[in-house]
Structures are given as structure tokens and as C-alpha cells.
Amino acid sequence: VENLELLHWLRSGEHTVEALISSGYQGAAYLYEGTQGRRVIKVATGSGIVGWVRRWMIRREFAIYRHLAGVAGVPHCHGLLDEQFLVLEFVDGIPLSELGRDIDSHNTFYAELLQIITNVHDAGVAHGDLKRRDNVLVTANEQACIVDFGTAVALSDRGGWFNHQLFKLVRQFDYNAWIKLKYRGDYKSITPNDRPYYRPTQLENLLRIIRRGWRKITFRQYRKARRRTRESESS
């Protein structure tokens, strides 16, 4: 029954801008409130080659969530409708990027987040985009939840050598991201217990150099400082 209600809601165009949560390279995400509670619906929008790629990405993410069934700290997946609507549990939380303060139980929270990351890896999935603070939610009781597995890598017995090496690489990305989030980029403060988790890869080092060069070329730090000054003057 819920699936029929969802399809009617999606096809009728009722998922207007008011229900829009976010939009990006995969399409759009909407908040649906139905008889069974709230759901997040990821929709593969677009036509032609763009629409085809986005539908493929939605199907791929659905396959990732099947690996993660039963893993705590990850939204439950309620299914894939019409090969283009991914139905996920709504998690009531605030992204780390919007929290605006440190977490009261800092060490407990990040220990829990590390356990979730490890459990995700044990399920054969590496997230790959945890440095993006939007992908980690903080619930009202300061529990962690990882969202958005659009770029995740799943370990496959049929994937061969390349798949296994890619999984190992992205798995290390996740641990490095955990360190960055926990220590807010202050790598000199990493404790001896956490040090083994941090092993920067050559690819990450290269990307870091490119980002630093780009910031200098575009005067990004200068523009950010100017913006903060204007905001403080206006407040």
C-alpha cells in the first residue's frame, strides 16, 4: 500500500520544491510523509544520457544498501520503485557541517562513528566520501549516522583484483576521513591510539596539493576572510 501511495505522490507532481531536501549529481532527494512515517526519496531526474546515468547510479546505490541491511548507524532502505526512486528511512539528525558547535560527548560520538565505519566495511562496503561533513548526521541524543552511499564501493567476489584494490583504497579514505572529522584537520593532535588509522594515500596527497594550489590561484582564503569580516560588521 505504501509503495502505491509513494508512486502516486511522485507521479502526481506533489513532490514540489517544498518537499525538496537536496539536489546534486544523482538527481534530487525529497521528504515524503505518509501513513507509515517519513521517508527520504532519492529521484533520478533528467532525460537522455543524463537521466540514464542517474538511473544507473540510483540502482547502484540500491545494491549498496542491500549489502548494508541490518547495519546500525545507516538508514534502512525500503526498496527501489520503478528503477528510479530509492526509498530510504528518514533519520532525524543534523549534518556535522551545520552543527555549529562541538559535540558534547566528543570522544564517545567519534568512537561510535568509527564502529559504524568498521561495521560498514565488514559488510563489504566502503563509503568514500566521509570527509564531506554533510554525510555524517548527529541525532538529538548525539548518535552518529552515515548517509549518502552514492559513491560507495562494494566488495565483490566476482570483481577481481581491481575491485579488491579499489575497496582497500576507499576503505582507507574512510579511516582518514574519520581522523579529519574527529580532529578537525589538526593532524598534530592525533593520539597514539588513533594514529594507526591515519595513512594518507598518494592520491589524497596529490589532491591536497592540487587543492592548495587552486586556493592560492583563486584567492579563496582571502575571499573567505573578507566574507567573515563583512558578516561580523553587519551583525
UniProtKB/TrEMBL annotation:
It holds the Pfam family ABC1. Residues 74-177 form the ABC1 atypical kinase-like domain. SUPFAM superfamilies: Protein kinase-like (PK-like). Signal peptide: none annotated. This is ABC1 atypical kinase-like domain-containing protein. It comes from marine metagenome.
